[in-house]
Amino acid sequence: MKNSEFAKVFQDIADLLELKGENVFKIRAYQRAVFSIEHLPQELEQLVKEDRLKEVVGVGEAIAKKITELVITGRLDYYETLKAEFPEGISTLLDVPGIGPKTAMLFTRELDIKSIDELEAAIVGGRVASLPRMGDKTAENIRHHLQALRRKDQRIPIGEALSVVDEILAGLSRVAGLKNLTPAGSLRRFRETIGDIDLMGTADNAREAIQTFVNLPQVREVLASGTTKASVVVSGGLQVDLRIVEHDSFGSLLQYFTGSKQHNINLRDRAHRLGLKLSEYGITNLVAEELEKFATEEAFYERQGLQFIPPEIREGQQEIARAEQGTIPRLVELSDIRGDLHVHTGWSDGHDSLEAMAQAAKARGYQYLGISDHSAGRGIAHGLDAERLRQQIAEIKALNQKVGGIHIFSGMEVDIRADGSLDMPDELLEELDIVTAAVHSAMNQSEAQMTGRIIKAIENPNVDVLAHLTCRLLPDREPIAVDMEAIFQVAAGTDTALEINAMPSRLDLKDTHAYRARELGVRLLIGTDAHSSEHLDFMRFGIGVARRGWCPAADILNTRPLEEIVAYLKH
């Protein structure tokens, strides 16, 4: 079983326990386990074999026993018994926003509904509206939720979603008095794929902002439109919601809709113990029954005695406890980046010249740029053989004399062959400033083969960086089978840097891998893998991943000044 399958079982258990009205702490124990499992850098089956389940945050003894039972037998008696207590298909209905436990039971018992398609057919046929406490308006609202759920199932990479947001923000910029406009939800938390987009803002004239929004050229369908909020579907089928609130309530609204669900649950539970009630409108003192409003998120968290929690780490793990202690680090920011050490030029499969890439990097304020054109073994990339590489080294030396204000490192993205050898002689690699190794072929090797292959490359003394370790492509290509823990251990021992590849279709290492590598003392760097000067802007995607991995600037190699990079590469 894959980790995603384990997570689905425990999410179902949490939903069914909630349906039974079980103890809320028991339900949340399963919800915490789901999140931890979804974000593990290792497979649970491997941890069971190594007797290491106790290392997984959020997995206690009882859940660990259930995981072990699933691994050994392929089924879980507790889960099967629990499912048998309820009508078939009820878990599916609980996934629909707006359908709570009582409504789900009503649909299954009265209408024998077992699937989303059956529910939609019942709404269209008028059977849902005829049920007690339903009616036409409620039935239609549920149908809108169904349509939104289908769109959410078709998640898109964050790179595509941010492109949509940029266009919408540009379109709304002409609205006078519209302020604080920002994305919320999973986009603001920088999840790697997005189901829909939530936008928040404040306005002197909310009605004007909403009208401008629903009439943007990107809008294909208006799902709902009121005086302070609206929902639309834009080109490509993505749902976008806009909410406008009073200026003095913006901090509460933004925090509430940024989430995640588990973060907000944990925050509300803690606040309740302090005699407070949290909502999108502010904080209510339960004794005085007075609502306090907050214009900023910083003030909202401070009122609860908490350090500000960056949105990227609001995932219901350790962030609230760390905020209580004031030990959340200052996470890396785009302004911390001093250079990009993984870019391509027209010498291989890039679109711009060496000088154009250097000038573009200089314009971004970078101190250095690392050229990493492909080796010849990857024929589709018009890679460099030994002769062409020597010619490029000479051109880079000349360019460093010509272009002031930035240093250009000679380098190569050298292919790791199936046997772990490198696609370029060691004596030539020694002439380069920086060597980046990467897998581009034979990706169907077994985990043992792939792990040994990559470790052999890391242990080559000429290799400085390992790029896009898992080789995944979002949303289509699955990651290779590799023992990440073993790779991290070897990389830490050899002082080899691991790349967070900022290409929006890669984001590789992902957030949980970056977190674990950082724990083990592995050097990380963020490389854009740019194939044109415009691609240098992909750095913001790598920053998002690093922030989700709790990385301060000190953990990212290319936040260091030029002299430190030179010293590292010589070392």
Set down the secondary structure blueprint.
Blueprint: H1 3-20, H2 24-38, H3 44-49, H4 61-73, H5 77-84, H6 90-94, H7 101-111, H8 116-124, H9 135-153, E1 156-157, H10 158-172, E2 178-183, H11 185-188, E3 193-194, E4 197-203, H12 206-214, E5 219-225, E6 229-234, E7 239-245, H13 250-258, H14 261-273, E8 276-279, E9 282-285, E10 290-292, H15 297-303, H16 319-325, E11 339-343, H17 354-363, E12 368-371, H18 386-402, E13 407-409, E14 411-415, H19 426-429, E15 434-438, H20 447-458, E16 465-466, H21 484-494, E17 497-501, H22 511-519, E18 524-527, H23 539-548, H24 562-570
Parallel strand pairs: 4-7, 11-12, 12-13, 14-15, 15-16, 16-17, 17-18
Antiparallel strand pairs: 1-3, 2-4, 5-6, 6-7, 8-9, 9-10
Helix pairs in contact: 1-2, 13-15, 20-21, 22-23
Taking the sheet with the most strands, its summary is: 5 strands, mixed
Treating each run of at least 4 consecutive H or I residues as one helix, how many helices? 24
Second rung of CATH, namely the architecture of the largest domain: Alpha-Beta Barrel
- Give the overall shape: globular
Rounded Rg: 26 Å
Please give the share of residues in helix.
Answer: 40-55%
Mean pLDDT reading: 91
For this structure, what is the CATH class of the largest domain?
Alpha Beta
Count of discrete domains: 4
CATH homology superfamily of the largest domain = Metal-dependent hydrolases
Oligomer: single chain
| Alpha carbon gap, first and last residue | 43 Å
What is the beta-strand fraction?
A: 5-15%
